[in-house]
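Researcher: Batch entry, complex prediction.
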Amino acid sequence: MSIDSSSVDSPTQAVVLVSCPDRPGIVARLAATLDEVGGNILDASQHTDRQGETFLQRVHVSWPSVNPEPEEVHAAMQELADQFQMDWRIHWGHAPRRVAVFVSREDHCLHDLLLLQRDGSLQCQISLIISNHPDLEQVADRFDIPFHHIEVAQSGDPESESRQLSLLKANDIDLVVLARYMRVLSPSFIERYPGQIINIHHSFLPAFAGGRPYHQAYEKGVKLIGATAHYATAELDAGPIIEQGVIRVSHKDSVKDMIRKGRDIERTVLARAVRWHLEDRVVIHAGRAVVFA
Amino acid sequence: MSIDSSSVDSPTQAVVLVSCPDRPGIVARLAATLDEVGGNILDASQHTDRQGETFLQRVHVSWPSVNPEPEEVHAAMQELADQFQMDWRIHWGHAPRRVAVFVSREDHCLHDLLLLQRDGSLQCQISLIISNHPDLEQVADRFDIPFHHIEVAQSGDPESESRQLSLLKANDIDLVVLARYMRVLSPSFIERYPGQIINIHHSFLPAFAGGRPYHQAYEKGVKLIGATAHYATAELDAGPIIEQGVIRVSHKDSVKDMIRKGRDIERTVLARAVRWHLEDRVVIHAGRAVVFA
Amino acid sequence: MSIDSSSVDSPTQAVVLVSCPDRPGIVARLAATLDEVGGNILDASQHTDRQGETFLQRVHVSWPSVNPEPEEVHAAMQELADQFQMDWRIHWGHAPRRVAVFVSREDHCLHDLLLLQRDGSLQCQISLIISNHPDLEQVADRFDIPFHHIEVAQSGDPESESRQLSLLKANDIDLVVLARYMRVLSPSFIERYPGQIINIHHSFLPAFAGGRPYHQAYEKGVKLIGATAHYATAELDAGPIIEQGVIRVSHKDSVKDMIRKGRDIERTVLARAVRWHLEDRVVIHAGRAVVFA
Amino acid sequence: MSIDSSSVDSPTQAVVLVSCPDRPGIVARLAATLDEVGGNILDASQHTDRQGETFLQRVHVSWPSVNPEPEEVHAAMQELADQFQMDWRIHWGHAPRRVAVFVSREDHCLHDLLLLQRDGSLQCQISLIISNHPDLEQVADRFDIPFHHIEVAQSGDPESESRQLSLLKANDIDLVVLARYMRVLSPSFIERYPGQIINIHHSFLPAFAGGRPYHQAYEKGVKLIGATAHYATAELDAGPIIEQGVIRVSHKDSVKDMIRKGRDIERTVLARAVRWHLEDRVVIHAGRAVVFA
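Model: Structure tokens for the complex:
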């Protein structure tokens, strides 16, 4: 069953994510359930949280000999779920997610997402790009992605958000990526896409939350700067952290140098987080992101 | 079942390692087998090799409600193994491995192993220290570890190796750690401890195998130097790699500076490799080390 | 004299690089010479090689009050040089270098160079792109850079190289960047641009020189993969190393995964090396690259 | 003048640190001054701060042909200083600093400092160890360092601090290293040793200042943990940062795992900071540490 571990894009494959109160035998029972419906476990990762109360598992399943019958699989899973008080979801390989990318003026993160998607490293469809500035329309055009310029007078402006939300709905968007989008979304916007909005913050959170993190880092005289990809929540820059990275700086680096160096970290950290999300490797539990990388 | 993931030192716990030709259903069958003998799977990692021919799995099992009956467990595993042409081994938590550390004059790796073992980070018993120099006897004394000074006229000297092997046998040693031991063991010595001798080489292998790697690195003008922990095999510095690390250097660094900087990498890389081995996280397959870290 | 340390692009600034047999007083004498012609030292870095025989220095000079008179500066420097048997060169800030980028099919390194140049992080003019494949013409067009498709039947093919060299000459090229160009240039080509051709090799040299380094890395089971930016010399993949980087891999990573992960390292390592070259921070001495970063 | 760049321990060598309002010609004048008193510049690093108001330089000088006359050197420097409103200090190579190490119960940082000093990597004399617990006396004994157990009922207890200060004074201590000392020193203690107390904090400051940083990091779900070596100031964990390092963690890591992993970072970061301080590579300016590494 030789499978590229990062590839789940076949109709005969699926990723199952479960969480339930921990109790003995759960791994064996889930394995048996999937076996009974013809599924073969290619990869499984599990985690039991600190207090030992919650069991989480990600299972990558294939149907090597017969085509899966989704209804049958879902019914079997639901039966198990009822027994174990289990939350579960399944993501079939033939349904790439639909992604909207929000940007402002900087394009280094956007470029990376576009190139990675084109090269097959991000299993998704980038359906549209929304920006509060017109600057990056040309980039969108080059990759044939619809571009929408929606001015945002100030962060959380209801009318702008209403137009953004309409676009997301019309395009059936599963995931919003804030790729250096320099406006803060309102809590009510964010709550419509729980665990479905990924932001890149240009600091090593929780240090330097809020605005102008490189200026803060410069003032503080830190010796490493970082970037953090996290799910957006109502509280600014405080959502579950998916991935972080750092790069070395010194007193020689001006704020401008830090901004330049930081770009490499921002885009790689964001791209990794988006990829993990798309491959159903991330589970939010107790306010933190468990990443089955 | 909240368990420190790196702790397997209880009599009601075990780690099972299996490898077999890959075929559908194997994960479910192994889970069912362990379930039937009262075991609860705390953690499981698997890997299928590139050609899809071999399935490898590490399963950390506990017996939460009853004490395990090792004979029963072994019999059940063997039955499964016969069916799947499976190689398997089990390591019970109450049997810490017995380790011999070989050293020469440098003590930074030795110190780390001794301190980590003392702090409970290395689940083993360090039974003896063997050196071709008398220098480090004092260190051994401080930690109350028997120290044996065995001169080695030249690498592979049969008489010295015979004395070393007698000590290993008399002390029932499971693992030999070459902690900057500056002699090369003969192939016949190494073959008596297959996959049981871990060496730290002070370069980023396969670059700079053989002697004086920091001098080689200096001459070459590399910008990163490294260290590699690997299993010793008959071919020098070519055995399966368990762990590697690097640190940045520049033209400012003399060979002496590189040696100093390299020490930090050598000891942390070696300690990590030894820990993973002791926790049964390493499986050698097709000449490479699969590390279920 | 507050100056962005990475900015030398003003007509009243210059970078002076010197090398000479080491002897006492040289730093003071060079400082005095530049002072006498109105120059103010913004930044100076020096290095004396291991055997203590050669002194190397990079000095970043500005003329804060009067415009420099290049002839006067050059004459003063030459007088000093004669006295100290000094090799020296000066690069005035108003003369950005002219760069040719060679590519094949992969565009991740090319994209980075183009974006960085556009953002002002690479002080140069990218004058043309040469490729042995037509694929990336569209990328060149987007950035309005002339693109030349020159087929290369096999590495070192004299007719192709002759056409390439004509283009370099016609465009007055100062620096050739091999941005994942998959042909080997002939020694006679390379010798026409000594210390002026930067290549990115997709491994941590000297490990895995030659073809298919990620396949080699996979076979070997290394735990880190890397990239190396170096000056091209007649001997393949053996020229002075400017910069290196690594990223962690595991047994889970297929060759394809390594190729994907490696891209991030390749492009950042190459971009850093090119930037340092353009800022006159790299001096080749005794076969190694001294980088005054 | 081949010199190990990190070695300044000869009576014919010195490190000069200067800071003054920036103005053209200062580098040349300082070089000339040192030249006139027979000094040869082995290495010089300078930095001009952001606002361009302050010039900082570290100069490593040797007297290759004659023994230096300290009075003459000091007089020449003072004359220059008067002219340029310069703060300056000189540290002669034959005067290793006298260091006191404060510890509590954990010994990983202490061990590293002791081993590095013994190996010649830290140019100092470790004169005494002070602890609020008796546990590490045995370690001190092994290295023949006087050990003083001074109970500290609570952080800042005046009587305990008075005893500690007496010991520092009696031993003519130049540098205090807080090597995982778990008490907070009072502002009045700290103000007696401005820029002479180095602390290791077990987090990536400014994230997780204060107590139990690994617990905070665990709760927050960060993907990297760090350590920060900084000068102690009256404000807790807010002094100038000398060095920082990070290591990767995941949801698999318990707080206990983080503590274990963090130890490697803490000790290497602290050792590096102490070494740089001892080599006069650190200058505090405008609340930040400039490190001429």
